[in-house]
């Protein structure tokens, strides 16, 4: 049983047994007041690039810190650590703001959380934090998706009033699996076809298989919006809307990629029961402590 | 038994049971005299881009022609037609210069074969021709390799005195699986580790698995030479040395890629017995009719 089975209003129905057409989102994109010049085009494109968010010194510090975590034997059996099938290497570590004091401090900095507050127009809390490691040679990409679609279906996030900040710890080239986005696609909600299987998150964090958008939908968005890549030096960051369509190719180059990934949600948009899954996902993936940052 | 088992001199030993280190190639890159300005940097980088080799009209003509071939039921059981595992679609059609009169005419044009002659310093013949189709959404990439390594090991090509011309029939973006090359890597031969299994070509045309360079070698080349991508509008072409290290990522975008791929070999570099395989590959993959083009 899901919320919609009980007749609860669901403006973003997804994971339905019959396919549904994509539609214009009703919620705003910018809920607050944009003051940082870097965020000027956020409303239009659904993302903004912030160059040199971290200095080279800080990049080095965080790289050491996140490498330390990936190599910490105490975490090997921790479920917050996700292993990549093909490469047999660490792909992600969740709740990194709790595992690393340095990342925890970073989250609380005004210039970080403040970016999210400008867009979301309220206090914000951390919905998810992780560090991602995409190895060279065998780095698996991930297929097109909207994060909000998953957070709504599986975590019970009511509206697309959340933003993600991806901070590059390595240089992003066009050819090493850097993030591809469809600028403007954040205004279109693409319902996914098919019901969520139990414990879906265990597989979906490794490889997206269920709950992915249809090719017709991606084709339509691709024709309408085109594709941009988030490239740039280590230390640069991408802030993007929770409903932006994005994905990445695999990485066969010798140049690995890693980043810190922070998701801020509005305190006025806290999680309820999942809209299209039997059980909510674990709190290390979808935090249910809604205490505002700071 | 292979040629080297008989004590035949092999300056490019590969597919050996013990790993061998990469080494500087002894043969020249440019054997003739470069006259076309587009080829000015061929010697240095191992490739040249020729913008607008085909006009938009010709691109449209060849696209129709190659689509016709991919859909021709008479070819479905033809072994020259290669099917991609994952997408269950046509990946390549070999000997396309015989299957299509238009492609046959193209090969014989002075401005096409002439490019190869300038580099190779002799008359040239067609070692291989094919059309490649990389679908959107599920297009598989291919791992790093030198074509010459395969042509030497499996086809008995003595020296890297051959060039490939890849003519784009669709736009090449940085994100839809376009060719990645390591500029300057053509001067380094990377022996591959492991003996060639029988009928290796049947699998290797779909997915490279055996006879691929080691990660240490790719790492070293990547650090020394970096990576460039062949991007540009449909109709542009890349002429590249047979020993240039190249590969491509997968293509999850809605934008498919297709190209005509022509390999010219010097008539002074014709094939003998394979250097590291029991049997030569079929002639639709490695032509043994050495009649010069024109």
TrEMBL record, chains A, B:
Superkingdom field: Bacteria
GO molecular function: 2-oxoglutarate-dependent dioxygenase activity; iron ion binding
Short name of any one Pfam family annotated for the protein: PhyH
The protein's required cofactors: Fe(2+)
Gene3D superfamilies: q2cbj1_9rhob like domain
The protein's role, per its UniProt record: Involved in the biosynthesis of 5-hydroxyectoine, called compatible solute, which helps organisms to survive extreme osmotic stress by acting as a highly soluble organic osmolyte. Catalyzes the 2-oxoglutarate-dependent selective hydroxylation of L-ectoine to yield (4S,5S)-5-hydroxyectoine.
NCBIfam families associated with the record: ectoine_ThpD
PANTHER family to which the protein is assigned, alphabetical: ECTOINE DIOXYGENASE, PHYTANOYL-COA DIOXYGENASE DOMAIN CONTAINING 1
Quaternary assembly: Homodimer.
Designated name of the protein: Ectoine hydroxylase
Originating gene: thpD
């Amino acid at each position: 049983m899901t919320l919609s089975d009980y007749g609860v209003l669901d403006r973003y129905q997804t994971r339905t047994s019959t396919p549904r057409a994509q539609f214009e989102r009703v919620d705003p994109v910018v809920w607050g007041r944009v003051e940082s010049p870097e965020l000027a085009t956020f409303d239009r494109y659904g993302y903004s690039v912030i160059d040199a968010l971290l200095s080279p010194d800080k990049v080095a510090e965080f790289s050491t810190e996140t490498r330390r975590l990936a190599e910490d034997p105490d975490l090997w059996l921790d479920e917050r650590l996700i292993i990549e099938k093909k490469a047999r290497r660490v792909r992600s570590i969740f709740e990194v703001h709790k595992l690393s004091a340095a990342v925890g401090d970073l989250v609380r900095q005004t210039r970080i959380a403040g970016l999210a507050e400008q867009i979301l127009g309220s206090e914000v809390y951390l919905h998810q934090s992780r560090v991602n490691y995409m190895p060279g040679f065998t780095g698996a990409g991930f297929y097109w998706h909207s994060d909000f679609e998953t957070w709504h279906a599986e975590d019970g996030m009511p509206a697309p009033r959340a933003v993600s900040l991806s901070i590059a710890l390595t240089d992003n080239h066009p050819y090493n699996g850097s993030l591809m986005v469809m600028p403007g696609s954040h205004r279109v909600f693409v319902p996914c076809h098919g019901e969520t299987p139990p414990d879906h998150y265990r597989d979906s964090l490794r490889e997206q298989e269920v709950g992915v958008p249809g090719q017709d939908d991606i084709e339509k968005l691709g024709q309408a919006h085109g594709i941009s890549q988030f490239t740039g030096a280590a230390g640069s960051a991408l802030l993007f809307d929770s409903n932006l369509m994005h994905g990445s190719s695999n990485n066969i180059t010798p140049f690995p990629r890693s980043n810190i990934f922070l998701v801020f949600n509005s305190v006025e948009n806290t999680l309820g029961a999942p809209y299209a899954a039997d059980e909510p996902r674990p709190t290390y993936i979808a935090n249910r402590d809604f205490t505002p940052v700071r």
